[in-house]
Amino acid sequence: MRFIWPLPRIISRDFYFKSSIYIGGQHMGTDIPAPTGTPIKVVADGQVRGTGWDIYSGFFVAVDHAGNWTTRYRHLYGQSPVIRGQQVSQGQVIGTVGSTGWSTGPHLHIDLWNVNSQSPEALYKAGWWAHDPELYLGQEDEDDMTPEQMKELKDYIGHQGQQRNEQHNTIEDLVRGQGIQRDEQHEAIRDLVSGSVGGLSPADLKQIAEAVADEQARRLQE
Fold this sequence. Notes:
The protein is an alpha+beta fold.
């Protein structure tokens, strides 16, 4: 399976970024900044699992692909033009860049899921495994690779995932040890959400976020 990039490859926040604003404490996706209205391309052929809106993701679309893969595209500008059950072709526009939901600026958050763990960096959540999109988007088509090349690629992916986990664990330890406060973007997210839902308490917001995550997990399992 070959996945293309949905937007030009410019990363503002990677899969391994850790913060308490995320359920589970880790980003588990890749943020790609782009101007509002930039067309978003689906990374591979597939079938639309669903579209919708929630307070966390804003407008989003999810697409199922061969090999038990699913991609989700979040913070779209508006409702996706595709509908549930529709077949889509690699490179087809499935939405445009926005800043809806918990977002501090126009960007696409893309996450990559599989029902099985495909590489060491994968994290389990509600019946699915989240994988680092940067390790898979733009990779060579497996059908064009020899078994030796495929093994080399998988070994490389595994090595990169382990290295990044170690680096981010070290950063997390340093942050905790020095008591560094959360950055301004995190505060902006809290301000944004508080303003959009009538000044709910942090406990209320956490409860809403957990309910949203549970609902998203339920939808993925449908």
